[in-house]
Amino acid sequence: MRVVGVDEAGRGSFVGPLVVGAFAVDDSALESIRAAGARDSKELRPAAREEVYARLGRLGDLASVALTPRVVDRAVRNGGLNDLEAEAFGTVIRRLGAEEARVDACDTNEARFGRRVSARAGGGVRIISRHHADRDDPLVGAASIVAKVRRDRALARLRAAVGDGIGSGYPSDMQTVEFVRAHLQQAAVAPPWLRFSWATMTRVKPVAPAVTLDQFTP
């Protein structure tokens, strides 16, 4: 039986994409995933994630969907972020093809999120939706590594374009906060890499921005 794990990276960030990652194998290979070092990506340093990611590429099939800040902003303003993620989860499940999909639930109600993903994954796929699945299931842990590595690479490209000071992209990272604040003081147009719907923006906005945040709103 072919099984796929699905998880996301970057939901809480306010810089860069939200990336949904997936990893699919035959169920007979599940133990080899654990042996390859698959686990919750948050437990691994970047270099170790890249190493495990390379091993996973030799064991199964990988896929991802990157949701841009503008797409995320529209979903948040319409109260549809969970639906947006469910659609992306369904997309990677359809892309890889599987009889069973194990997903890390983004919704507070894991069963409801599972139903949303099921509606978008196509017929004949059993959906197992659980909180902390990236921690508890190596298959979903593998998917979390796919998502995190591909988001890390997207941020590396962003750093090359706008500067290393952008940090991790998370509101808990003061380097990121100060970089964004300084950028907004000089910006004339809305940076496409920044999420304006996040409450973090009320804390980050500069004292004397070049333009107001209302003008940035997409």
Features:
218 residues; alpha/beta; Nucleotidyltransferase, domain 5; 50% helix; 16% strand; globular
Major sheet: order of its strands? 3-2-1-4-5
Number of domains: 2
Structural class: alpha/beta
Mean pLDDT: 90
CATH architecture of the largest domain: 2-Layer Sandwich
Q: Count of DSSP E strands?
A: 5
What's the CATH H-level superfamily name of the largest domain? Ribonuclease H-like superfamily/Ribonuclease H
Largest sheet: 5 strands, mixed
Report the CATH C-level class of the largest domain.
Alpha Beta
Low-confidence stretches are: 207-218
CATH topology of the largest domain: Nucleotidyltransferase, domain 5
Structural notes for this entry:
There is one protein chain. This protein has 218 residues and is of the alpha/beta class. The protein starts with a strand and ends with a helix. The protein contains ten helices and five strands, in the order E-E-H-H-E-H-H-E-H-E-H-H-H-H-H. Helices cover 50% and strands 16% of the residues. The protein is globular. A five-stranded mixed sheet has the order 3-2-1-4-5, with helices on both faces. Helix 5 links the parallel strand 4 (100-104) and strand 5 (126-130). It has two domains: 2-159, Ribonuclease H-like superfamily/Ribonuclease H (Nucleotidyltransferase, domain 5); 162-216, no CATH class.
